[in-house]
Backbone:
């Protein structure tokens, strides 16, 4: 089962034009990561094919498995 689910219709999201897209709702969707410790928005760092998350509030890297991700419909 995919973990990239539309927040509106709960369909699986696809990847189009460098972002998530719900084919059923015909809407662009953003994915935002939040710190599991302080709930602040995280900065995504990508290097050498892997992704990490950094919390500017806690001033430390966060494990991808602990990060809370939220999907939101992009307003036109």
Residues:
């Amino acid at each position: 089962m995919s973990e990239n689910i539309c927040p509106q219709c709960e369909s699986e999201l696809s990847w189009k034009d460098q972002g998530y897209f719900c084919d059923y709702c015909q809407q662009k969707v953003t994915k935002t990561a939040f710190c599991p410790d302080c709930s602040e928005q995280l900065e995504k760092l990508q290097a050498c094919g892997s992704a990490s998350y950094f919390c500017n509030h806690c001033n430390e890297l966060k494990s991808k498995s602990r990060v809370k991700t939220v999907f939101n419909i992009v307003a036109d």
Observations:
- The chain is about 0% helix and 45% strand.
- The longest strand covers residues 27-34.
- Strands lie at 14-16, 19-22, 27-34, 43-47, 50-55, 60-62, 68-73.
- The mean pLDDT is 91.
